Amino acid sequence: MTVEHPRRLLDPGPVRLAGRLQPRFVYAADLDLVPRVKKDFLDPLPLASAQVSVHAGMSARKELRQFHELARDLGVMLNSHVLEHRDDRKDDPIRSLRETGAFGPDLLMNHAIHLTDEEIALTGAHDVRVAHCPLSNMRLASGIMPRPALHRHGVRAGLGHDGGTNDTSDMFNVMKAAVGLQRARHEDASIHPTIPAVLRMATLGGAECIGMADRVGSLTPGKRADVVVLDPGTLNFAPRFDWTSQIVLNGQPPNVSEVFVDGHLRKHRGRLVHVDPSRVVHEAERAAARVRGAA
């Protein structure tokens, strides 16, 4: 669940939720709607999670403070697209987050591209988390996250799609782009993220960024059994000698043979279990048409 700026849409999030009813606009007076949505639609689902999404900017400090307090009361993280584009600088989003008390470990900043050196240092000092969406940033001509500088200041980062429909929903591609963009920009093959580092960003790093590292992100006793099994005998993995590099640089979705979610088998021998793909596609097209019609 995401909750945008009060002048924007309340969007239950097509990536995290299977469907939605009708889009609607939410204003500050409707703050009580957010906990109701969480309680009625998300809490009954053991695999669902929520964040409160906000527009960060000096022009919306009052609303930002209200939604930050709401997220804190609900025990969920705050989520905001921050400095994705150069024009976002005009509303000084980092200052607004700091002045409202939202700039801390319970904040996930998406994109975080056009940060100043001072803002990068502050992000690390306050343990703010960031989501790196390289495929989206390239498609939208937004720029390149200063990931090496953020890393030097200890900023924790995960990988994101931003818009899975437009950006292939392929985490292997996201990993390749995260490595390749920095290497091309800095002309340095050793620049962060290294290949092992980007694999961590795609797994445990992402779990850290959404406050779920105690439950998911690694194969650890006591955590949920989320497992992706790759078939090592495929042509694109041969010859096999450096498994980490093979996964990041050569991996493709067809290499995934088994998927377990919370210990339950969801994909077996390359095929989804108990899922009719044609029906899913049909329902997605119907939902998209309904949203387009309402908009």
TrEMBL record:
UniProt keyword Hydrolase present: yes
Amidohydrolase-related domain segment(s): 59-265
InterPro entries documented for this protein: Amidohydro-rel, Metal-dep_hydrolase_composite, Metal_Hydrolase, MTA/SAH_deaminase
Keyword S-adenosyl-L-methionine listed: no
Keywords: Hydrolase
Pfam families documented for this protein: Amidohydro_1
Protein name (record): Amidohydrolase family protein
Source organism: Streptomyces bugieae
